[in-house]
């Protein structure tokens, strides 16, 4: 049903997890995907795999917290490909702790990746989108961007910021053909969650607890989140903007 043929798509955090699934799903529907990640080895493997299937993808090495690199990368793509249709700001990092277990440096690090990263890339690509009077910006928030999750003070703070950033972006640029949507997944079984689980004294018990916070009794797969992103990125979602799209298996919170 969804066809992204001819669309130029930039996805961050595309080497693993949700971002990898987004890159795979969007390229499978015809898009040219720029798969960006700080992890060159894993990112190149994703792109090689797509190319072996005859799909269009390029790897871009990028630390989203480095504004200069974000700007340079965007300028290069815009010069060569004359624009961008869909920007998926997915890269993000986590942290476990209440405020008492969170340092100012932890908070700065999470803001630099989770919020400033999407700010820099959006700022760099948006003028070209406005010029073509068409563009979609999809920002990966979290269910922790709309409800509080215990022991995730810094993480939730940044994800609430992602939702706010997205709503402002959508409002300011709707009449210039831009849509902006925040995606708010519940728990998704990726390396991201595995890293968090490893921080608990009993990871198996924590796994069961995290699974049970979704009414469906399990975590999502990355592909389930990528399907939602495909819809939101497509022309079928032409009336969807400024929203925090919850895809959470009926998250009940802890
Ligand atoms: P992941 O850790 O499996 O993958 C994240 C990817 O981002 C990795 O490839 C990593 O190399 C890359 N990355 C990290 N820092 C980067 C940087 N500075 N610059 C460029 N790339 C960088 O994570 P995931 O579970 O796939 O999560 C992806 C996004 O979804 C994140 O924003 C996360 O907050 C959000 N999210 C995840 C879950 C979950 O349960 N897994 C739930 C809700 C939201």
What is the gist of this entry?
With 254 residues, the chain is an alpha/beta fold. The protein contains eight helices and seven strands.
Please give the structural blueprint.
Elements: E1 8-12, H1 17-28, E2 32-37, H2 40-52, E3 57-61, H3 67-81, E4 86-89, H4 104-131, E5 135-140, H5 153-173, E6 178-185, H6 191-197, H7 203-212, H8 222-233, E7 244-247
Parallel strand pairs: 1-2, 1-4, 2-3, 4-5, 5-6, 6-7
Helix pairs in contact: 1-8, 3-4, 4-5
The protein binds nicotinamide-adenine-dinucleotide.
Nicotinamide-adenine-dinucleotide (NAD) binds at residues 12-13, 15-19, 37-39, 62-65, 90-93, 113, 140, 142, 185, 187-188, 190-193.
Keywords:
254 residues; alpha/beta; Rossmann fold; 7-stranded parallel sheet; 7 strands; globular; binds nicotinamide-adenine-dinucleotide
